[in-house]
Amino acid sequence: MSTNPAPNLRNVMLNMQDLTKVYPTPNGDYVVLDNLQLQVMKEEFVSIIGHSGCGKTTLLTMIAGLNEISGGKILLNEFPISGPGPDRGVIFQSPSLLPWMTTLQNVMLGVKQVFPQASKKELNEICQYYLDKVGLGNALHKKATELSQGMQQRVGIARAFALRPKILLLDEPFGMLDSLTRAELQDVLLEIWDKEKITAIQITHDVDEAIFLADRIIMMTSGPRAQIGDILNIDFSRPRTRKDILNDPDYYHYRKHLIDFLEH
Amino acid sequence: MAETIINTPSAEKPPRYLALKRYLPSMTKIVAGLPAMGKNLGITLASMLLFLLVWQLSSSYLYGVEAESRIQRVLEEQGPAEAAKMEACIASGDVSCKPNTLPSPSEVLNAGQLLLADHFVISADKAAFVEKTAAVNAQRKAAGQAAITYTGRPSFVDQIMTSLKTVAVGFLIALFIAVPIGVLIGLNENLRVAFNWFVQVFKPVSPVVWLLLVFMIVKTLTLGSDSDTSFLISAVSVGLCSMWATLVNTSLGVSSVNQDYINVARVLKLGIVKKIFKVILPSAIPLIFTGLRITVSVAWMVLIAIELLAQSPGLGSFVWEEFQNGANDSNAKIIIAMFVIGFIGFLLDRMMYFVQRTVSFT
Q1: Sequence-separated contacts (24+) of B113-122 with Cβ below 8 Å
Q2: Residues 6+ apart with CB under 8 A from A90
Q3: What percentage of chain A exceeds 90 in pLDDT?
Q4: DSSP characters for B83-131?
Q5: Is A7-263 a domain of CATH 3.40.640.10?
Q6: Which residues of A touch B269 (CB under 8 A)?
Q7: Which of B13, B16, B267 to substitute to test the interface with A, most A CBs within 10 Å?
């Protein structure tokens, strides 16, 4: 890449260039992603939407470093990523809490890794702060197995934010929840995100969720050889409330646009 | 489980005893379970009675067969007068002509009481011995000599204690060999391949052969020392026979940790030590304990056979000695030993189950 990026590229947090993912199979290579180009700006919230099997999750796990890159590169703050790391906080689809640990211990495990110099008190304060933010300030010593799915995912959110990552990766984080809990957690996520403004990429199936959360929605074509089909900017001001957005006429235009693309 | 977490009034860490309480059944649960428990208890008692009845009937049938053949033999060899005498002798229940066969439940109960009484006699004897030698032993100790110890016959209870000691040492040997190796081969696929043939080939080997192998090695290693090696030999053999379940289960548990947990460890860039102790081992604990539970049962089962062969004291040699002895109550004593072995095995398994439940996260 050029040593002196153009001014508008200074604001790029995540830069995917010619990104390709190929799974070798006995019947020849299966190309999931083919020369994908995507830039995500600092403090931007991007949702990626598309049909199942289009390679959304593959894309996200590649950014997370959990999945190898077959071709092209991913630059985070202009540096190519190599392997997973806590600078990219992941909120997994299943909460993935360690069930033998308490809520606090689950968050602490990562915080200790990221802030090795901090005192025990400081570490505790960080964990407590984020667990308070997700509404679990009173459940610090509950075992993960004692929490409901929604509660567990709240811990997952706190764990990811507490790492103070450069970028947040959300892999259908609310896909396994019922619709009421889902809306509740979207609010929790948005509230904490509005404070922290961590660049975020979210995979979702849910059109309304994408509109509610994102600044920009990337629509992916169906695989194999998935490509970016369309991009939609969501111009609602922040902080957003569900009610305001539902009352905004633009909401229905956005929704129609997305559904037209998906049903195409 | 289902209470709302948000409304819990206090953020304080719960006291330690509350964590324990989680494992004890609550009073309401006990009361609610009473009818079902009563029914199960009834069924169990009924089947026990049936068992005793079948036992009683078969032992008296076998007694009859044995007695008949005895009378017949005397009749053929010594004539009707002697046969009539034999018949009267058997009917009187005299020890000298008692048919030797499966003992009845009441005989076994009697033998059990005798064994217990015998234990009290020996214990009293031991206590008297200690008292008698106290002064001498104090002198010997002062002079730097070894104390005089009781060398009399061990009681049945002593034999049980010896067996328990052997199985405990054997279990610890299995634990300290199988768990570390299991973790290592669970972590590394190359090591797993390297160990695979070894596990597959040696796992099915009979306890008897293990005992002989251990005997060969221990005999050479302890050349020149005159201490009794039979305890060591049987404990090591028990350990080697019983460790396989733990080895296999540990490596399975370690190699099959949920990919989600591994991903968490990768994203957090946990070091290898932290990864093992914070993620892999806790996740493998339920399977490790399943293995250990099997190990305890196998250890107890092979112990009897091994003691019997290794001539080391314990329940196994008790059974063997009674069989060789052939006294009129030997059979009953063997049956007593059988019940004791079974009951202790059951208790050991319950104990392991409780430990497993306490340390597992599920």
Answers
A1: B114/B329, B115/B155, B115/B156, B115/B333, B115/B336, B116/B156, B116/B157, B118/B155, B118/B156, B119/B155, B119/B156, B119/B157, B119/B158, B121/B155, B122/B152, B122/B153, B122/B154, B122/B155, B122/B158
A2: A64, A66, A160, A169, A170, A171, B263, B267
A3: 38
A4: HHHHHHHHHHT-GGG---SSPPHHHHHHHHHHHHHHHHHHHHHHHHHHH
A5: no
A6: 84-86, 113
A7: B267
- Chain A residue nearest residue B11, CA to CA: A138
Q: CA A184, CA A168: separation in Å to the nearest integer? A: 19
Instruction: Enumerate residues 6+ apart whose C-beta is below 8 A from B126.
Output: B150, B152
pLDDT of residue B10: 47
Tell me, what's the ipTM?
0.86
pLDDT, tens only, B33-88 = 788 888 889 999 999 999 999 999 999 999 999 888 888 888 888 888 888 888 88
CA A254 to chain centre: 21
- Measured between beta carbons, which residues in chain A are less than 8 angstroms from residue B266? 65-66, 83-84
Structural domains in chain B, CATH included, are: 32-97 (no CATH), 103-151 (no CATH), 154-359 (1.10.3720.10)
Interface of A with B (CB under 8 A): 64-66, 83-86, 88-90, 92, 94, 96, 98-101, 109-110, 113, 135-143, 145-148, 151, 163
The confidence score (pLDDT) of residue B6 equals 46
pLDDT digits (tens, 9 = 90+) for B12-24: 555 666 555 655 6
Between B92 and A38, the higher pLDDT residue: A38
